[in-house]
Design brief:
heterodimer, A: about 180 residues, mainly alpha, 2 domains, flat, B: mainly alpha, two-stranded antiparallel ribbon
Chain lengths: ~180, ~500
């Protein structure tokens, strides 16, 4: 089944770029292989109770993944396109801004690394400020203040009022 | 009259000062988050889930119900004032609501939507009270093969009814099922897809999957395509309705739930189809057909009422069968699982205080919504002006809070980011997100029912189809699968007749 528009490319682009959705198919294929390998290398001997063991469902899912990967590739080669999702703040006429996405992913990863040693108030503030910066906000006076305020407020509301523990880190020990 | 008594007890639970407070906070938070552009109800409830972690279950679900209804209401405010619906169900509200706002009738559009939500929610919840205990008592007798059939139906429906491509829906579902496989096998304790990692042996928490796909995926996707010139919201005053408007809309408010409620209860994509059907119905029945497309108030009132009632319908299948039919219900089911509560036919027997308190709080929440939102609407409209960098930075920030709060593990944040990147890729290539979430949540349960059914039948496949109920469900599945071909045949038949 094909979907989306099959309009010819306005500008000549390389074949691969035009068919980048094949990449999804490849990923699904790899995932299928991974699931099947994991299922078939599982040692099931005495643990199995009943006719259907822990292997059955992963094997079915793995085979289905391979099948869908092939069907999707066929669909893409016949000109089918997945429609990119629109939205309120989304402008699909511009090409993807990879720099922003990578920066955001980096900032987010930074938070994961820093949350335990530095505590949530500091790592959270860095996460907010870093994300806002990556998204194009350049108010060097206002942004850090908003980030620090939001982070501290969230920490107190969750940790002290709602009973959801967050790591305070060295900052909270000092205060 | 048994359920009436239970409902009265429920009001006893819902109207205690502390639960009233949770309901009010939930409604306010839900509306505030739902109004924010780019945040639909599913993302709103996923982001706000951690707020309820510290509460006991009853309080948590009362707050959660408020968040749900608040977020739905907030979403329609965004469509009317910005003309950029955050989710498919709000598209219809924008078709008529935005022209009304442009013509200076924004206040009336908001009022028609608010009262529509109230009417639809009230009628829907009354139907829920009337039907849910019956459905639950019928469902008590159904066994493993029936559950498995229902879950297969949910999988098929969510991949073939939603979205434009079945292959892409199936791919999404399989991604979800794979994520659901990670961890220890529930029946034998066998490690699956854990790669020797202790943390993965616990499985990937559903909340992390939901927040990753809905919040992180969306924020990254928007970040890659952020609109530089942000649409200006239309300024609006306090919502009100004149006599002439009420005369035009009261029937629409009452008609909406009749369409919305049944569609909410079946796995057919939630409010999307019923809002559209309601819109078409209102257009056909209206005496002001020429106004449609240019700001007909019935076109706001009917669909909004239908959307709200479909939310109540969703709760019927969620509470009585444990079957989530929409993304929001899926997140809600995840919330139940957090507390070790399994929604299903036994829920009404095992946790009557919780269920009836929750249902009563739906009524309370709707009254609060109407009382708070009509006067606060101009304030909510101000939220639409939030600078986009802050909005999406805030989404990432709260997603991180929520994922960390699940287990206090920094590794969860990394998993969250990976799932967020998967969500990003899915949006890029048009894979719908809902099938994946349904797969993660229902996958493990479906496997368990399948294995239970086959254990009982001693491995014979007939054990899956040995009840009338399961046979009926499989028949429905076959019809769903064959629908594209059936449609073609029917169309061809019609053409032949007309020729």
């Amino acid at each position: 089944m094909t979907t989306g528009t099959e309009t010819p490319a306005r500008r000549p682009r390389s074949w691969l770029r035009e068919h980048s959705e094949i990449g999804v198919s490849v990923l699904l294929l790899l995932l299928g292989v991974l699931v099947l390998t994991d299922a078939l290398t599982m040692d099931v001997d005495i643990t199995q109770r009943g006719p259907v063991g822990p292997r059955t469902v992963p094997v079915v899912v793995g085979i289905a993944l391979l099948l869908v990967a092939v069907l999707l590739a066929a669909d893409v080669l016949r000109g089918g396109r997945g429609e990119a999702e629109g939205g309120e703040d989304i402008d699909l006429s511009e090409p993807s801004d990879w720099r922003t996405v990578l920066l955001l992913a980096g900032v987010f990863l930074g938070n994961a690394v820093l949350i335990d040693p530095l505590g949530f108030p500091i790592s959270g503030a860095l996460l907010f400020w870093g994300s806002a910066y990556a998204l194009g906000s350049r108010h060097y006076d206002r942004d850090p203040l908003i980030a620090a305020g939001l982070s501290l407020l969230t920490f107190f509301v969750f940790n002290n009022l709602l009973g959801v523990p967050l790591p305070g880190g060295p900052l909270m020990e000092v205060l | 009259m048994d359920s009436l008594n239970s409902l009265l007890d429920g009001f006893g639970t819902a109207l205690t000062p502390i639960n009233l407070l949770w309901a009010a906070i939930g409604v306010l938070l839900g509306t505030a988050i739902g109004v924010l552009p780019g945040i639909g109800p599913a993302m709103a409830v996923a982001l706000l889930l951690p707020v309820t972690y510290g509460l006991e279950p009853t309080g948590a679900f009362i707050m959660f119900a408020g968040i749900y209804y608040g977020a739905m209401f907030g979403g329609s405010t965004t469509s009317i004032l910005l003309n950029t619906p955050g989710e498919s169900a709000a598209v219809v509200a924008a078709i008529e609501g935005n022209p009304m706002a442009k013509a200076g009738r924004g206040a009336q559009a908001l009022a028609a939507a608010a009262i529509g939500h109230f009417a639809g929610g009230m009628i829907g919840t009354i139907l829920l009270v009337a039907l849910a205990p019956t459905v639950a008592s019928l469902a008590v007798d159904i066994g493993a093969p029936d559950y498995f059939a229902i879950m297969v139906l949910a999988f098929i429906a969510v991949t073939s009814v939603l979205g434009s491509s079945r292959i892409r829906g199936a791919a999404s579902l399989l991604i979800g099922l794979t994520i659901g496989l990670v961890g220890l096998d529930q029946m034998t304790g066998q490690q699956r897809l854990t790669f020797g990692s202790l943390q993965l042996a616990d499985g990937i928490d559903v909340v992390i999957v939901a927040v990753g796909l809905f919040a992180i995926g969306e924020a990254l996707w928007v970040a890659a395509h952020l609109r530089r010139a942000v649409a200006e919201p239309i300024p609006v005053g306090r919502p009100w309705l004149g006599k002439a408007d009420v005369k035009r809309t009261w029937k629409s408010w009452l008609r909406g739930p009749l369409i919305g409620f049944p569609f909410g209860a079946i796995p057919a994509g939630g409010a999307e189809i019923p809002t559209f059907l309601s819109y078409v119905t209102e257009k056909r029945l209206s005496r002001h057909k020429e106004e449609f497309g240019k700001g007909a108030i019935e076109g706001v009132a009917g669909p909004e009422s239908a959307a709200s009632a479909s939310a109540a319908g969703t709760l019927v299948s969620m509470l009585t069968l444990g079957l989530p039919t929409t993304a929001v219900a899926a997140v809600m089911l995840a919330a139940f699982q957090q507390y070790g509560i399994q929604p299903g036919p036994l829920l009404f027997e095992r946790e009557p205080d919780l269920v009836w308190g929750l249902i009563a709080s739906l009524f309370v929440g709707m009254v609060l919504l109407l009382l708070l939102n009509l006067p606060l609407a101009p304030l909510w409209a101000k939220l639409l002006r939030i600078p986009r960098p802050y909005l999406y930075a805030g989404i990432l920030f709260f997603a991180a809070v929520g994922a960390y709060a699940v287990g206090g593990e920094a590794l969860d944040l990394v998993i969250l980011l990976v799932i967020g990147l998967i969500g990003f890729g899915m949006r890029r290539y048009g894979l719908p997100v809902l099938p994946a979430v349904i797969g993660v949540i229902l996958g493990p349960a479906a496997e368990q029912q399948l294995r239970r059914a086959l254990q009982i039948s001693d491995g014979s496949v007939t054990g899956l189809v040995n009840t009338p109920f399961s046979v009926t469900v499989y028949a429905v599945i076959v019809i769903l699968l064959a629908w594209p071909w059936l449609k073609k045949v029917v169309m061809r038949g019609r053409r032949n007749v007309s020729v």
